[in-house]
Amino acid sequence: MILPLLVLLVQDPAERAREFQAHITKVRGLEFRREVPIGVYGREELRRFVMAEFEKQFPRARARKVEKAYAHFGLIPADLRLYDALIELYAESVAGFYHQTTREIRLIRPEESSVPDGADFSVDLSDVTLVHELTHAAQDQTYDFRTLPLEEEDDDDLVAAVKALTEGDAFACGWNFVYRRTFDRVIRIIVDRQKSARLPGKAGELPEFLRLAAVFPESYGCEFVLAALKANGGDWKALSRIYDDLPASTEQILHPEKYLERRDPPVALILPDLGESWRPIAANVHGEFAVRVMVGEKAAAGWRGDRYHLFERHGVVSSVWFSRWDSVQDAREFFDAYGRRLRERHGSGKVTAATEDRVVLSEGEAGAASLERRGTDVLALDGEAALLALAEAVWRGVRARERAKVARYRLGRWVCPKHADVERTVDATCPRCGEQLVPR
Description:
alpha+beta
């Protein structure tokens, strides 16, 4: 759980936790069903712990594939080692976290006693952090984090949306504890500061996308929670209903009205199999948040769904990226903005074909690319020149289904009826064909 604040430990955290738990139960409406162990650790102890967890949950082999995708789309520099950068990010900026496997809260020893909170006050940030992490413990005891799509490896957008709910909920609870009567006024200042993504130490030197992704769940998630509170007359207990009808996209987090007022569900896209020689090394969803980082807020507005496949052949990384938009105008704005980005990427390439709705760039230092819009859909192919010949196969083979509701998963053993090698511990959908998994 990223929270770039320092912790002041002035008394036994377990003793303070009892008072804080009563506040969480009274205000947020979450009950504590079992004791929450709390440990205090040094920064180097945290670094060692983070490295051990990464080896389990985000091993270097998987990190390398994600790194290639991020670099290919220009979200991080090509020479950045993502695995090491994320360890630096967590080890430098985290102040405390709830570990959902051990169900323990870990707090970090302070290096300073207090820090300005951005609202011309100085507060004991250990209270904020401990309430924040206790809220996570109560969330887990109430909703069971295992039933939330927080570990999906092929849909970063959905994961970011659900994390925004859990983190925004805990972030708001933490700051509500210390400000109480002035919370409504001060929280906006705090959220704006968080959005700036000014992180401490070496974490503050990381690429913009990584810094923004780190603070997105708490900052924009808190704004989403505040909007939900306003829509429910300030009733914090109303937030619990959202855990049974989860936000489905970062679009709904960035634009809470698209969840709370006029529900705007995303479409889940399935890209076709392009043959044995084009087996993807990664498949994922950017979502409006990542697209916004790429092309700006205006061009990312109107996102309805996307999916990309990443390939690597002959030492060349290539991608198929299909996106759908709310309107023809939205699709055109994205087409124009991403077209400029592709021209920058293929700086030495030559535009060999260009119309209002299609542009093709010949091979240059970065290979070849094509970008085409048909109605509200946009297809981008980028990499090997041979990939461009498969455009029609992609257009014909794309399938889409509306994700009207994201409910919590059921636990068990589940398999895909079409792909026997796809097996999960929750009843999700198959990332390869989109079919609902069935009990094993």
